[in-house]
Amino acid sequence: MSHFWQLILGTVIALLPVINPVASAPVLLAITEGDTEERRNAQVRRGCIYMVMILVAFLFGGTFIIRFFGISIPGIRIAGGLLVSGIALGMMSSVHEDVDERKRREEARAKRDISFSPLAMPMLSGPGSIALTIGFTSLARGWSDYLAIILAILIVAVISYVTLRLSARMVRLIGSNGMNALTKFMGFLLLCIGVQFIVNGAVAVASDPAMWHAIRAGLNH
Fold first, then answer.
1. C-alpha to C-alpha distance for 159 and 170, rounded to whole angstroms
2. Where are the alpha helices (DSSP H) in 116-166?
3. How far is residue 15's CA from residue 8's CA, in Å, rounded to a whole number?
């Protein structure tokens, strides 16, 4: 398999558990309660388009952010891995809806258009997926790599769109217990990805000659 297709596959596998449209399906039904199926589908379509725009913007803006703040690529990988691992642990633990979460859902239900907020952000393109997208800049060596990542984002958007369009049927078919089990499985997969990000970043730091030179210089003083 060529590097181009490996990058597409790796990006899809990394992004999909973070975005997790399956877990967003019950929330979507709750905040669009009373809407017609046509209106709900239109909001899902716009939400997925907004998600692509947000992630692509951070993909290209990530390089500027890294250079502006002087952040190293290994640092981005470790930070992204920690953030993703924290999200994964939350997915795997028993989550109880608190008062603030119920309030946010009520506010979303009262909105006329939920396609950008809260659907596109933070449900689909939240801190985890944004951090991962910025981290993908460390894998891009040329325009073909950026194209591969954008294609992967589009694939994830299509999967999310189809999943959310079928949200009512899926929730009835899987049930609450099935949804919880699937969320925990996705959380475990996401935890593995986060840990791997941390390992890759730590190995890159440990193998950096400049770092060891600075350590030796400090010891000599």
1. 14
2. 127-136, 143-165
3. 11
